[in-house]
Amino acid sequence: MNIKKEQLGKVAVLYGGVSAEREVSIRSGTMVHAALVKQGVDAHLFDTATRDVFDLKKEGFNRVFIALHGRFGEDGTLQGALELMGIPYTGSGVLASALAMNKVRTKQVWLQNGLSTPLYYVLPRGADIAAVQAEIIDTLGLPIFVKPPHEGSSLGASKVETVEQLQAACELSWKYDTHALIEQCVEGRELTCAVLGTGASARALPIVEIKAPSGDYNFHNKYNGNETVYVCPAELSEDLTAQIQTLVLNAYRALDCAGWARADVLLRAVDGKPFLLEMNTSPGMTDHSLVPMAARASGLSYEELVIEILSNARVHVQRQVG
């Protein structure tokens, strides 16, 4: 449902927030806001860390662009508040946002739908790692990745090459979350694929390949460094490109995502099989971000991208029955 710019009304760009990804969110929101204002949209920055979200209703905002990343912005909590106020918002609804924010639940849904994702193990904070480390290594092998299930931007994530490193990696993850997600390492190419739209009309954008220094796509290499190389469209055969885009669209629909999102994918070197890592329902929109990069490769400018996303803002819960 694309609408004209003059019909967008008074728009709040929600940014900042209280998650560990606040810094990135400020960058994303600032760029989104500038792009909207440049096109004549009545857009206003709104930091949810310093403002009461229910002021959105009091101040007469007609719709919101969610440029928040992480908890209390991308995890369904904010989406629930916006549903209560009846204010259309960008991206996925309450359930899809909550599912995608939880990497463990996301993997469970994908596996139930027959979609490939690396094997995993979950440890609650304070668990006796020594008692289970042999089982973990037997199941997943080495190396493995340890990460918080509810964080993004590689925060709290570690690559574990030896058994001795597992304890420290889990303790780092537990600083960010109540559990540590321990994931099988799929050696190969690192890809990402964005999706725009909802349901049957959703479409995959060109795939981006990420070539980070030493293969470590950490927070610095994502947002602050200039050493990471991005190839868009990724150098893949037509058949493999179509296979990965179909996998991502199926993953998007399995979680009931809407509006836009971006899936991270690993392409296993030994056999060229793609594995889903996670789904980001409020991806970055900074000058280093991957969705704008993919959009440009498809002929969509940054300004056109934000207008398309915003024009598809909606409430997801039917307010009247019958």
TrEMBL record:
A GO molecular-function annotation? D-alanine-D-alanine ligase activity
Enumerate the spans annotated as ATP-grasp domain. Answer: 107-311
Q: In which pathway does it act?
A: Cell wall biogenesis; peptidoglycan biosynthesis
Residues where Mg(2+) 2 binds? E278, N280
Cofactor notes: Binds 2 magnesium or manganese ions per subunit.
Name the cofactor(s). Answer: Mn(2+); Mg(2+)
Any one Gene Ontology BP term? regulation of cell shape
- State its location(s): Cytoplasm
**Keyword annotations:** ATP-binding, Cell shape, Cell wall biogenesis/degradation, Cytoplasm, Ligase, Magnesium, Manganese, Metal-binding, Nucleotide-binding, Peptidoglycan synthesis
Amino-acid positions noted as binding Mg(2+) 1 in the UniProt annotation, renumbered to this chain: D264, E278
Could you say which protein family the record assigns here? Belongs to the D-alanine--D-alanine ligase family.
Q: What is this protein called?
A: D-alanine--D-alanine ligase
Q: Provide the species name.
A: Hydromonas duriensis
